[in-house]
Amino acid sequence: MELRQLRYFLKTAELLSFSEAAKALSITQSTLSQQIKHLEHELGVELFQRNSHEVQLTEAGEHMVPNARATLVSADTCVESINELKAIMTGTLNIGVTYTFSPLLTDALFDFTRHYPHVHMNIIYKPMSELMEMLQQRELDFVLAFKPSERYANIESHVLFSTRLTAVVRTGHALTRQSSVSLSELDCCDMVLPATGLQARNAFDRILADTDHRPHVLIELNDVEILLKLVRRSNYVSVLAETTIHDIEGVQGVPLASCDDSMEGCIHVRKNTYVKNSAREFYRMLSESDAIKRYSVLADLM
């Protein structure tokens, strides 16, 4: 049994199409079919039921999927650890970041690239649900996002800091003269909010769910940068995590009154897998950055 055969098997099991799997693997369909047949012959079972219309996993094939995936994860982990022993602090670091974390990363990114110029960094901004899926598929080394409301069996989360929701307005807005703003006051405001599915919006919706308050939402969007531009140029009010406006000019945050609005910022990693030295070093630099220390509740990471 070869690792490439397991990779071929998993891609075919995922797509349930020999032609699509071959295309995704950049091999010919005949090569793929031949390797799957070799694997089935060695195991003594059929892994797929094939006919002219569709491809389906057999019971043996269904049983094979998690075992093949675990084998490939172990093999990839072995290769990663050996490569890092040969060349410490090189390679690629893939980091998934939710939009609201962006202002907190700047110092750590500058420090890391200055100290380790040979590490190539891919910073990927997406909603949390997409990033967690990418993390589970080993497309990311870790994710920076708030603590999820749902549990991911294969992911563990380390709390890095705590923040809260805040009403965000332009500098000089009437609300900035107040120490806090109530939900009743927000009902009277024209609001621009992050789109449903983004974590700050989800947290705000949970607060509203147990009340009769229904704010007047004019605009919803999933681009925080554009949202803040709208706020700066108008009397619109938004609700975001306090950390989202860290060092952002032209806007201010006003705490929400009498709301359970605490949010925990976390580093999310896969359980029981090798953690790159470069990832560990980035954790350290991030936890020691001034931006994180301002909100930090846990500096001792992994």
From TrEMBL:
CDD domains: PBP2_LTTR_substrate. One of its GO terms (cellular component) is cytosol. Residues 1-58 form the HTH lysR-type domain. Keywords: DNA-binding, Transcription, Transcription regulation. GO terms for molecular function: DNA binding; DNA-binding transcription factor activity. InterPro entries: HTH-type_LysR_regulators, LysR_HTH_N, LysR_subst-bd, WH-like_DNA-bd_sf, WH_DNA-bd_sf. Belongs to the LysR transcriptional regulatory family. This is Transcriptional regulator CynR. It comes from Prevotella sp. GTC17254. The gene is cynR.
